[in-house]
Amino acid sequence: MYKDLAFAGNAEDMKRLIAAAGSGYQGDVWIGLKDRFYNWWWSTPFPNPYINDSTSVRLWAKNQPNNKRWDKSLCVTFMNGFWYDVNCSATFSSVCHNNSNTDTHGLHRYVFVKEKKTWHEAQANCRRYHTDLARVRSHTENEQLQAVVPDGVFAFIGLYRHLWNKWSNGAPSTFKYWADGHPLGPPHNCAASVINAEHHGHWVEKSCQSERHFMCYSNQTRVFRLELKSTVDLEIDPVLRENVIKEIEARLKEKGFTGDFKLTWIS
């Protein structure tokens, strides 16, 4: 029984994936990496999700978001009422917001910061002197934000997303094995591993709707035998045996064994 589409946490995993395809195979295979382009987040002490769909306030400029996805993250700037995705390492002015239950008209909710900083520098500055980078959750808030940002000026707001950061099994994606020049920008959001003499398993992005061969993975099962010495007869006391198993499980978890494992008593 297989668990999910294949994932690779390191170079050794990629070697095993290529070997599993067989020496005679040339082509590309789906792996479990997908860029969830619709998942964005607002910067807050506890990040709030923003789903880029018809249920959310969408203020993207024409043909946005469209930035290439070579970097690990994308951030968003605001200009003349619209959003533009940019490299988080670029420098722009920024807009902070202040939480206030008494500011019902938003007169002091947003603060424009003219000094240009990277997104993370702007975030740190807003958190130090205000609440955080600006959030826009309604057209009313968008109008309030537009009132403090000069026309024609790009300013960071608190919207961002991480790219290609999670496998289909839920594991974080930290290891990268992209082919040169990849990944590119939209619209392709699923990763395939290209197995041939040139690429040796390197990843490229493909349309998720296209049909391709695919690679799965299964968990390895290993059996370990542990012998216990006891001063009492454990065979005649099932409750005591169960308590011993629970104690061993707890000790294993303390030592970092967090994966799936099962302890069984064998006479």
UniProtKB/TrEMBL annotation:
Pfam family, any one: Lectin_C
Matching SMART domains: CLECT (SM00034)
Residue spans crossing the bilayer: none
InterPro entries linked to this entry: C-type_lectin-like (IPR001304)
Protein name: C-type lectin domain-containing protein
PROSITE patterns reported in the protein's UniProt record: C_TYPE_LECTIN_2
Domain C-type lectin: 5-97, 105-217
Protein's organism: Solea senegalensis
